[in-house]
Amino acid sequence: MNDTDTMLDIKNLTIHYEAEGGTVHAVEGLNLTLGRGESLGFVGETGAGKTTTALGIMRLIPNPPGKIKSGEIIFNGENLLSKSESEMRKIRGAKIAMIFQDPMTSLNPVITVDKQIAEMISLHKNVSKSEALKLAGDMLELVGIRRERMHDYPHQFSGGMKQRVVIAIALACDPELLIADEPTTALDVTIQAQVLELMKELKQKFSASMILITHDLGIVADICDKVAIMYAGRVVEYADKRSLYTNPVHPYTRGLFRSVPDIEEDVDELPVIPGLMPDPVNLPSGCAFHPRCSMAVDECRNSRPKMIEAEEGHFAACPVCVKKFMNGEALS
Amino acid sequence: MTTTDEKIIPELVRKRRSPLFEVFLRLSKSPLAMFGLAIIFILVFCAVFAEAISPYSPIKQDLMHMFETPSSAHWLGTDEFGRDILSRLIYGARVSLQVGFIAVGIALITGGMLGAVSGYYSGWLDNCIMRVMDVLLSIPQTLLAIAIVAALGPSLMNLMIAVGISAVPTYARIVRGSVLSIRSMEFIEAARAAGSSDLRIILKHIIPNSMAPIIVQSTLGVASAILNAAGLSFIGLGIQPPNPEWGAMLSGGRQYIRDFPHMTLYPGLAIMLTILALNFLGDGLRDALDPKLKR
Questions:
Q1: Which domains does chain B have, with CATH numbers?
Q2: Which of A92, A105, A109 is closest, CB to CB, to B194?
């Protein structure tokens, strides 16, 4: 990780939800770094804590029941967790923008789209109402929607176009960091490709950093520079894309890759990782993955593994595998 | 360029109409709603210009012409004191509309505020308010209104208060429900992620989204308030004689219904027509206010 231009540095972030059945350990001691202009793919199963981490960065964890227990989120050298609510409001949208999963519900149905984009602009930029509306039209054209349609309501757009509008809103104030929470999950495959292409293009144009939350390893390969694999509230492997895709180290990551179907091979049944995600109220001791791991040793049950560097810039939270990997032994 | 400009500009102008006008345009596509609106306009006109248009005084007795059936002198006939029924209906519109709108106003403002507060700041406050509303709701509306009027004494003002208060829980529930459902929508979270403050979210996102059910319910609420007030007057707890009120006229005519049905028929028709008109308008508004039903 180059420390020359770190934009976002999350240290030991812990977020809990107080539920009736006990405390949900949504995010446990998470560490993550993101450089300026980089894009990070955030991969994990449903419930791994990806969205919670994203909301944590925005300080939008619903409280109650959620609470950021400890940790630091350093954004541009400042700890977001020590900011006041009104300071955070100035950062949200202007410096860090978020794209939500479902474009069908993330636009206000009773306001025309130009006004929704203009609202974002006038919240953070000192411009007149008519100027904001004009800029809104520019943004729409930028995401490939004709300007004539700016006075339409969200329901008059298709799903893919709505997501374009959402992207226009997110980018309206030229944010430094864009958090996209499964931006294409609700769209069909062809539209997914278009939206991803657009995001890639605009990310470059606006030279923004991006955190892309997804469960789709293909999307990550397409747009991200770095990848973080998350399991049960922790990052288990972090590397740049090439290194992770060629040499996955952590058993969970390798399990994920094995379960991706190969177009060349004809198999009846895909390999799966045995077992289920642990109950976040009652996480296993030591490494959270050990009950499902074929390589688990006693050490895994007793102590929580730290992130170890396996090769340059490639970290994995599995001492057993890292050791094997560094000795050049085959990881099965 | 000129050709495209010409094409685009009228398009923009067409779409820049005020939202209110848009709603009216969509409303005008529904004949039933327009019928309702027309009836209500006529009623408002009657209420405002009652002195000018009613042919006789509504309270002056004329014992020479009692129980007259409709004729050219008395279009809708006369009642047991020789009073002109048409004139009484015209003046009665004044009372009915006043009761309807003011009672709904009372209910909407009180209930709306209680509902919005409990929806937005859920928790113990929500619990307290809504349990009180549940208690009120468990008492039949008419019975509750009777109790309030009986306690306050019959008068026009008390009638409106009674009808209004008995409708408060309905509005509190509707407003709370829509605030709750909208508060948890993703676009509210998106607005928060865009840096909007709570107040801005309430004013710009929650209220505009909850307006439609409230407007519709209010329109229908006016109808039931009028009906309620007429009911109270019918049992003698509303407007006191000799003041003209539709419910009271109905009640006054009921002992003569066998021989002179016109005395009950016309006030009854007036109530029915008003309520029908308000219901048509309410239904039309519900469709017109739903942006999803726009072409």
A1: 21-52+76-293 (1.10.3720.10)
A2: A92
